[in-house]
Known about the structure:
The protein is an alpha/beta fold. The chain has 2 domains: 10-285, Rossmann fold, CATH 3.40.50.2300; 293-474, no CATH class. Helix content is 31%, strand content 24%. The chain has helices spanning 30-36, 40-47, 53-64, 84-100, 123-135, 153-158, 173-188, 217-230, 263-279, 281-284, 293-305, 325-335, 352-361, 437-440, 461-464, 508-511, and strands at residues 10-21, 38-39, 67-80, 106-111, 141-145, 161-164, 194-199, 234-240, 254-260, 290-291, 311-315, 344-350, 366-371, 383-398, 408-419, 422-427, 451-454, 470-474. The strands form 3 sheets. A 9-stranded mixed β-sheet has the order 10-18-11-17-12-16-15-14-13. The longest helix has 17 residues, at 84-100. The two termini are 46 Å apart. Residues 507-524 have low confidence and may be disordered.
Amino acid sequence: xxxxxxxxxxxxxxxxxxxxxxxxxLETGLADFEREARRGGDLAESLAGTATVAGGFLEVLAAAGxxxxxxxxxDCSAAGHASDAAFxxxxxxxxxxxxxxxxLDGVLLFLHGAMTTPRHPDPEGDLLQALRxxxxxxxxxxxxxxxxxxxxxxxxxxxxxxxxxHFSPHVDMAETGARAARCLLARLNGAADPQxxxxxxxxxxxxxxxxxxxxxxxxxVADSLTLPERVPGIIDASVFCGFAYxxxxxxxxxxxxxxxxxxxxxxxxxxxxxxxxxxxxxALLHEELVDDLDGGxxxxxxxxxxxxxxxxxxxxxxRMNDSTWALRRLIAAAADPDGGGLAVHCPYLWDxxxxxxxxxxxxxxxxxxxxxGKSSERAGGPIQAEAEVIWAGRKVFTGTGPMRKGRRIxxxxxxxxxxxxVTVSVISVCTSxxxxxALEQFGVDFGGQDIVLLRSKTHFRAVYEPxxxxxxxxxxxxxxxxxxxxLPYRHxxxxxxxLARDADWPVVAERNDYMDKKVGQGDD
Length: 524
């Protein structure tokens, strides 16, 4: 596929993204999205050259000589469901800015694909429907989605083509934006006629098992990556793992294939890849990688005592970066003379109340804290302890990691606290520790630790996996548990593996109608 030159073309660029943990009592409101929002010239200036989807959009458009028309772009990463008011605001702003932009040749959007709100189980579909209602069906619209999108057939019908991150960790966000932009330019130049097919095998995985270096997911993704090279007429293929913690009728895997002028070809290849997912469903569920809390803590301590490199202890079920299940045990062990004397660091614990108290107290102060565990009843509850303030202030910096390169990171009032042999960086803006910035920006040396307690799911692997002596994954009762049977789903489709271990899937002849069907609406 060639894109050709694109001088004179005007392409709108925007984004509205959130990975919703539907079960959390905290909602993501208008102020949260506004904190991350970039508009107009600020969007183009602040996101150009970054490892974001928008960075990929802008790079390809600039190289081709097309005019990027920046709208609004906001990405709140993973948090509780979006408020209806926030969704309505940014949907209307995006549509309004599109209307006001003047003549456009095409639209490039980044939508996560796993946003939910109380009134919108399929917000991305609703947004695209509003776009089509306002601007019609002829304007080419291409959308980049997160690998963890729960895509609806309606969403696929409302865009000309869609593209997903190939990898988790999401080190290819900018390249995904570039793939979408190249395809749009090829469509506008007459070099390609993108035809999209979407197939949804009824499988969903806990996020911890969606690391794309794990076989057999690794091999299925590799198949999709090389498909355009191996099959004439295929433009692009994406395997979406779904997001298990967004309770929606469209929960689960999707396979999207884009072919040049041949939707039947796209459908056949999408069905083939989806069949690979279905056939591998048991092997995709890596339950052997996860320990219970007691067993995992004992394993981490045992390994750390015999290694020169740190052990990464991963409390993956924590969805709001404030869980205290493991941290409470580690602080208690540090206070015990027989606790082993290990150096432990916990980066990016989200607790605005404690962070502000530490800033007010100042460096060198000792203060009583109720640390973390405040996001929900499953977060473990606050740790009552006395802390020494090592550093406190506002933390703002430019990201250097593979997923946050070039982005301005504002953690708000923050502090580095010491509890005996345990140090904790406490932040006011909920952010996952996925690269070394999380330690180095607070003056903490990764190599000087025995155990580093992280709360990421897969993204930490891009940086920490090569550096750690071992990765020990523990499951806790928080909302991101590896045991999906613990979650109170209300809208998940019937027959979804592993919620239904004896699930079956229709034969291929029945799959062809999937884009025209809606299944498993659940009960309200």
